[in-house]
């Protein structure tokens, strides 16, 4: 069995679970750091483990283009190639292909696109994407889907749902390895299309389900509404994965609605731009007000950066362009989200997720806008 999922406890719709994969057990809800090109930027695998990372995400599109999946296969698979012995989820690369809209075109077979690296032309079909992910050797693979932008017309989203279902069927038929393949629910912000997509994919009996096409520019409340429509339609005994979402409040709200898995580039990208996650929103360490601030980055945080370095020193490093500053901020941001998800798991175990959710809303509600304006990337 490529994957097994068990629910240990529920607190309302929230689930405390355990995901069994060929490369280890994952406690859920889980946040997966993003290692797009076979590395979580600025971090070693040992550092990720020390921070509490259980599972990471890599991207098929990027690894296909560079260094190439054949090189990774020759190296013994992605786990050995990148020196990570824990579970790996690979995205299909569909989002990257469709986000390069001027450089791609759809055919009956799949999608033809031009590389963002050298302009060379390539064809992704559902079958090829499955084969590429089998070559990578990931524990969980994603089907090729079409993720429409926001906003998109009803006609565009209807076509995307139909294509996503057809490609999901072809992906299942193409499987030849013991790899857990997840279907991806699309449908934009149209309730009936979300429900249609969910029904069609559930009928195909995937071992897990992702919710795609969110956190692409729509208002937060609309994202939560789409989750309210979609999550109850997914099989309760299977893992549910909300793709590309990593804001702390979004994770808490999605967990409360029954989501188990998350990934996002937010902690690493924010760190590279001088930003830090805090319980009250984002902090931009580049701001001049921190030049003589000798307190920790986030008081009370027990991460390596906060325990050993001041805001003034981090301000200096980032303003001077020193790599250490970006590494320390990335360390803090990953620690923040990984610790948050551990606290969420503990709260569900106690039956107190509602209390955590209320405390978070009260704590960050009044200051979030100002801090995000300072640190937004």
TrEMBL record:
<comment type="subunit">
    <text>Homodimer. Within each dimer, one monomer is responsible for RNA recognition and catalysis, while the other monomer binds to the replacement base PreQ1.</text>
</comment>
<feature type="binding site">
    <location>
        <begin position="91"/>
        <end position="95"/>
    </location>
    <ligand>
        <name>substrate</name>
    </ligand>
</feature>
<feature type="domain" description="tRNA-guanine(15) transglycosylase-like">
    <location>
        <begin position="13"/>
        <end position="362"/>
    </location>
</feature>
<feature type="binding site">
    <location>
        <position position="301"/>
    </location>
    <ligand>
        <name>Zn(2+)</name>
    </ligand>
</feature>
<protein>
    <recommendedName>
        <fullName>Queuine tRNA-ribosyltransferase</fullName>
        <ecNumber>2.4.2.29</ecNumber>
    </recommendedName>
</protein>
<dbReference type="GO" id="GO:0008616">
    <property type="term" value="P:tRNA queuosine(34) biosynthetic process"/>
</dbReference>
<keyword id="KW-0328">Glycosyltransferase</keyword>
<dbReference type="GO" id="GO:0005829">
    <property type="term" value="C:cytosol"/>
</dbReference>
<feature type="active site" description="Proton acceptor">
    <location>
        <position position="91"/>
    </location>
</feature>
<feature type="binding site">
    <location>
        <position position="213"/>
    </location>
    <ligand>
        <name>substrate</name>
    </ligand>
</feature>
<dbReference type="InterPro" id="IPR002616">
    <property type="entry name" value="tRNA_ribo_trans-like"/>
</dbReference>
<dbReference type="GO" id="GO:0046872">
    <property type="term" value="F:metal ion binding"/>
</dbReference>
<comment type="pathway">
    <text>tRNA modification; tRNA-queuosine biosynthesis.</text>
</comment>
<dbReference type="InterPro" id="IPR050076">
    <property type="entry name" value="ArchSynthase1/Queuine_TRR"/>
</dbReference>
<feature type="binding site">
    <location>
        <position position="306"/>
    </location>
    <ligand>
        <name>Zn(2+)</name>
    </ligand>
</feature>
<feature type="region of interest" description="RNA binding">
    <location>
        <begin position="244"/>
        <end position="250"/>
    </location>
</feature>
<feature type="binding site">
    <location>
        <position position="332"/>
    </location>
    <ligand>
        <name>Zn(2+)</name>
    </ligand>
</feature>
<feature type="binding site">
    <location>
        <position position="145"/>
    </location>
    <ligand>
        <name>substrate</name>
    </ligand>
</feature>
<dbReference type="InterPro" id="IPR036511">
    <property type="entry name" value="TGT-like_sf"/>
</dbReference>
<feature type="region of interest" description="RNA binding; important for wobble base 34 recognition">
    <location>
        <begin position="268"/>
        <end position="272"/>
    </location>
</feature>
<keyword id="KW-0671">Queuosine biosynthesis</keyword>
<comment type="function">
    <text>Catalyzes the base-exchange of a guanine (G) residue with the queuine precursor 7-aminomethyl-7-deazaguanine (PreQ1) at position 34 (anticodon wobble position) in tRNAs with GU(N) anticodons (tRNA-Asp, -Asn, -His and -Tyr). Catalysis occurs through a double-displacement mechanism. The nucleophile active site attacks the C1' of nucleotide 34 to detach the guanine base from the RNA, forming a covalent enzyme-RNA intermediate. The proton acceptor active site deprotonates the incoming PreQ1, allowing a nucleophilic attack on the C1' of the ribose to form the product.</text>
</comment>
<keyword id="KW-0808">Transferase</keyword>
<comment type="similarity">
    <text>Belongs to the queuine tRNA-ribosyltransferase family.</text>
</comment>
<feature type="binding site">
    <location>
        <position position="303"/>
    </location>
    <ligand>
        <name>Zn(2+)</name>
    </ligand>
</feature>
<dbReference type="GO" id="GO:0008479">
    <property type="term" value="F:tRNA-guanosine(34) queuine transglycosylase activity"/>
</dbReference>
<keyword id="KW-0479">Metal-binding</keyword>
<dbReference type="InterPro" id="IPR004803">
    <property type="entry name" value="TGT"/>
</dbReference>
<keyword id="KW-0862">Zinc</keyword>
<dbReference type="Pfam" id="PF01702">
    <property type="entry name" value="TGT"/>
</dbReference>
<keyword id="KW-0819">tRNA processing</keyword>
<feature type="binding site">
    <location>
        <position position="186"/>
    </location>
    <ligand>
        <name>substrate</name>
    </ligand>
</feature>
<feature type="active site" description="Nucleophile">
    <location>
        <position position="263"/>
    </location>
</feature>
């Amino acid at each position: 069995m490529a994957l097994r999922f068990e629910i240990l406890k529920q607190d309302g719709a929230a689930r405390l679970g355990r995901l069994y994969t060929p490369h280890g057990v994952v406690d859920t809800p889980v946040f997966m750091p993003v290692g797009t090109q076979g590395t979580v930027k600025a971090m070693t695998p040992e550092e990720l483990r020390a921070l509490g990372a259980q599972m990471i995400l890599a991207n098929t599109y990027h690894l296909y283009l560079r260094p190439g999946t054949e090189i990774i296969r020759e190296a013994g698979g992605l786990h050995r190639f990148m020196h990570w012995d824990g579970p790996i989820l690979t995205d299909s690369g569909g989002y990257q292909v469709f986000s390069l809209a001027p450089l791609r075109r759809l055919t009956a077979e799949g999608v033809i696109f031009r590389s963002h690296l050298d302009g060379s032309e390539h064809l992704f079909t559902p079958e090829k994407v499955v084969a590429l992910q089998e070559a990578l050797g990931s524990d969980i693979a994603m089907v090729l889907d079409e993720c429409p932008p926001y906003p998109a017309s009803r006609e565009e989203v209807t076509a995307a749902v139909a294509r996503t279902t057809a490609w999901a069927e072809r992906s299942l038929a193409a499987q030849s390895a013991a790899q857990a393949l997840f279907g991806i629910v699309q449908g934009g912000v149209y309730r009936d299309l979300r429900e249609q997509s969910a029904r069609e994919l559930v009928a195909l009996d995937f071992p897990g389900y992702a919710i795609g096409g969110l956190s692409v520019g729509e208002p937060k409340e609309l994202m939560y509404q789409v989750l309210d429509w979609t999550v109850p339609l997914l099989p309760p005994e299977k893992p549910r994965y909300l793709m590309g979402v990593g804001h702390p409040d979004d994770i808490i709200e999605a967990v409360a609605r029954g989501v188990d898995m998350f990934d996002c580039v937010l902690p690493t990208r924010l760190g590279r731009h001088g930003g830090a996650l805090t319980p009250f929103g984002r902090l931009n360490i580049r701001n001049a007000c921190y030049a003589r601030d000798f307190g920790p980055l986030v008081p009370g945080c027990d991460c390596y950066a906060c325990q050993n370095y001041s805001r003034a020193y981090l301000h200096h490093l980032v303003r001077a362009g020193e790599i250490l500053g970006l590494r320390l901020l990335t360390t803090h941001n990953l620690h923040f989200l990984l610790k948050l998800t551990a606290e969420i798991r503990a709260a569900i175990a106690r039956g107190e997720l509602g209390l955590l959710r209320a405390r978070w809303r009260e704590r960050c509600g009044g200051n979030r806008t100002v801090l995000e304006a300072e640190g937004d990337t």
